Predict the 3D structure of the following.
Amino acid sequence: MIRTVNLTKKYGDFFAIKNINLELEQGDVYGFIGPNGAGKTTTMRIIATLLEPSHGEAYVCGHSIYENPREIRRLVGYMPDFFGVYDDMKVIEYLEFFAAAYRIKGEARRKRCDELLEIVDLDFKRDAFANTLSRGQTQRLGLARVLLHDPQVLLLDEPLSGLDPRARIEMRSVLRRLGQLGKTIVVSSHILPELADICNKVGIIDRGVLGYSGTVADVMKIVREKTILQIALRGDQAAAAELLRKDPTVEEVRIDKEQLVVTLRSGQTEYAQLPTLLVSKGYQLLRFQEEELNLETAFMTLTKGVGAKI
């Protein structure tokens, strides 16, 4: 659905983005993660044919940004981070105005607008004036607008920016629903943990360089050099720790409040023998799990020194 090849944008000697290579399939929800100024917006605007690259190529649904930009615009819905609304229009009038611009006529227009208000959970605001909406509601209205022509690809630039916690939860719910509809979605954010539960793939960009692009699970595997286990049990913690230290796969065991934190040796990913060992010695396991690595830690690790590559 989306493929970029060495996509680069320069302003003088400054690289806004450098050699960006992406490949997304239908139904992918791709989290484009990086700090402000990292190159997310530049990349998305080039894919949307709103900005020409210095060199490189991008394809959307097989169409080149150079050879068929008009067809790409028909297939793409682009939502910028900030946009205006008309003060004297009601929500339903706002959507119908843009639906008319897409040449959606008559009963089909009203039906499409009603469907989208329900999808973005704004049907209760259909007769409110657009300028009275909250920031979160305005973002959802903007999302409904870019969905009017039923695009196959959505490019959403910082849709969670500036929202209060409740509005972020509501927007994430809408994005998950769109992903379930089979849309290919690129959603950028600098709010790192916000995207972990809605994206199946992520790209981590810093200072114009794409440091990593792949599945969320693979990000964690790459960043984590050693497996860390968290174990809660009934019994003598100190004795249990000493027992685990004797296992050749274990590098370190420490007691952290009411649990044991076990670090395996580098390259060790199998640990089924450890719970078996503890149970055989009479310990009752209350919790035995691999420590989760959050997306923010992954970002900081993968982008360390990336900008120096430019």
